[in-house]
Amino acid sequence: MTELRQKSCRPCEGGVKPMSLTQARELMTQIPKWTLEETGPALFRTFRFANFYETMSFVNAIAYIANREDHHPDLRVGYKECVVRYQTHAIGGLSDNDFICAAKIDALEI
């Protein structure tokens, strides 16, 4: 279990600076299957599944995590895949919350 999975998100309504790319790159070591989109900046990962049912089950699990943490991703859902993208919109960049939720989603993999 990574350190990030043990944390909980903290409310972020703006008024704080987004993390630097250096800080983001350091945290990427804890979520190596994700990609850092530096131009956003944002985190994203594509998950692939055998069928639509598995895809939607995964999306529902993400919804549970997002509501529990009160931090919500952008999702692109297709028949056999789901692209998950995190960025803290209130600050226009990345926060710890994005990395915490990405790590919790990684824990869903079987």
From TrEMBL:
Asked if the keyword Lyase belongs to this entry, the reply reads yes
Task: State which Enzyme Commission number(s) the record gives.
Answer: 4.2.1.96
GO BP annotations of the record are: tetrahydrobiopterin biosynthetic process
UniProt xrefs under CDD domains: PCD_DCoH_subfamily_a
Which InterPro entries does this one have? PCD_sf, Pterin_deHydtase
Q: Where is the signal peptide?
A: none
UniProt GO molecular function: 4-alpha-hydroxytetrahydrobiopterin dehydratase activity
User: Catalyzes what?
Assistant: (4aS,6R)-4a-hydroxy-L-erythro-5,6,7,8-tetrahydrobiopterin = (6R)-L-erythro-6,7-dihydrobiopterin + H2O
Q: What class of enzyme is it?
A: lyase
Q: Which Gene3D superfamilies match?
A: Transcriptional coactivator/pterin dehydratase
Keywords assigned: Lyase
- UniProt keyword annotation of Lyase present: yes
* Source organism superkingdom: Bacteria
NCBIfam families according to UniProt: PRK00823.1-4 (NF002019)
Question: What does the sequence similarity comment in the record state about its family?
Answer: Belongs to the pterin-4-alpha-carbinolamine dehydratase family.
Stated name of the protein? Putative pterin-4-alpha-carbinolamine dehydratase
UniProt source species? Acidiferrobacter thiooxydans
